[in-house]
Amino acid sequence: MDMDRPRRDGGPDRAVQTRHLSRRDGRLSRAALGAALAALVLPGPAAALSCLRYDPVTAYETLDASEKRYVAVRGSFTFDGEGAPEHYDENAPEEWLTSGHVSGEVLTADGFTTQIDRDIVVVIGCVGPWCAVTEPSEDALMFLRQEAGGAALYLDVGACAPNVFPRAKEADFEAMEACMAGDCPPVE
User: The pTM is what?
Assistant: First the structure.
């Protein structure tokens, strides 16, 4: 993937990162506002048990506001799940890492158009004994975190924020294209 390829309009390539793509008006995203309010209202242990709604649009807006770099991908996703923690595991680690592979298209200003076929690191997150659970998919929506200038890709599958949607619908992919254009649809 050519990570720093200039766009036709001469600006940086927004196709490979979601950071600050659609928030030109400086407003706080709905996801960030909801997370901030939950942190203020909910006590620690209760917050670990309660997850706010995390759909593809919420994921896009949350990751767009992040200081980290992400790429949205539509395609197949496989990983080595042997030894992965169960959904509820009294001895769960905070994070469990395994190898994975994605093959598909990266979201660009023109839609899901840039090919990707890469090995990735899958990071399964746990909050106390509650762990994320995911499944391989032939047509998933994924948000991959870029490290080392894009040389390393991570799929963070959190207990409350999975960043992978293995059963994404066509409407989810269309919503991502709208978000990339700066017009995320409202969360239902």
Answer: 0.73
Structure-model confidence comparison of residues 114 and 13, the more confident one? 114
Residue recorded with tokens 């600006």: 11
Q: Are 131 and 89 in contact (CB under 8 A)?
A: yes
Looking up tokens 């200039």, which residue turns up? 6
Distance CA 81, CA 85 (A): 9
- Structural tokens at position 162: 């999975």
**What is the rounded CA–CA span in Å between residue 77 and residue 177?**
20
- Under the banding of pLDDT at 50, 70 and 90, the label for residue 136 is very high
One-letter amino acid identity for 71?
V
Helix axes 56-64, 170-180, angle to 10 degrees: 30
The single residue listed with the structure tokens 């200038």 is 149
